[in-house]
Every structure is written in structure tokens, then in C-alpha cells.
Structure to design on (77 residues):
């Protein structure tokens, strides 16, 4: 019986992981606001929701990058 393995391959850390994360999540937040405006939703509510999602996603992403960079540093030693 063959078992499925759900492990992601180790990828190299991008040159600017923190900056790249901010850019990606800012674009996604902008899309949320744009979709809300185009569909007749509340602009204020969309900005609030997009802002909260941006902060949470960015904080999580930065935490994960920091952990990965620390692990790589430990492996080098």
C-alpha cells in the first residue's frame, strides 16, 4: 500500500522575504477593497476588513520567515 506524503519541498528563502510578503498582502487587501466597491459594498467596512486581514497575514508571514531563517542559521553552525 502506497502512502501519500504531504510534505512541501524546501525552497530557498527569497532575497527580500519580508518586503515580498508585505507587497503580496497589500495587493490582496486592495483586491478585497476593489471587489467591495465594485459590488456596491461598504467602503469603510471593506477597508477595515482588508486592513485587519493584512495585519494578521503579514504578522504570521513575518513570524514564519523569522523561524525559517533561524532554523537555517542553526543548520549552518
Amino acid at each position: 500500500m502506497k502512502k501519500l506524503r504531504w510534505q512541501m519541498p524546501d525552497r530557498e528563502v527569497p532575497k527580500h522575504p519580508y518586503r515580498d510578503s508585505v507587497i503580496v498582502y497589500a495587493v490582496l487587501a486592495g483586491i478585497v477593497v476593489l471587489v467591495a466597491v465594485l459590488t456596491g459594498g461598504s467602503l469603510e467596512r471593506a477597508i477595515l476588513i482588508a486592513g485587519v486581514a493584512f495585519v494578521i497575514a503579514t504578522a504570521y508571514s513575518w513570524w514564519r520567515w523569522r523561524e525559517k531563517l533561524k532554523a537555517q542559521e542553526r543548520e549552518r553552525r
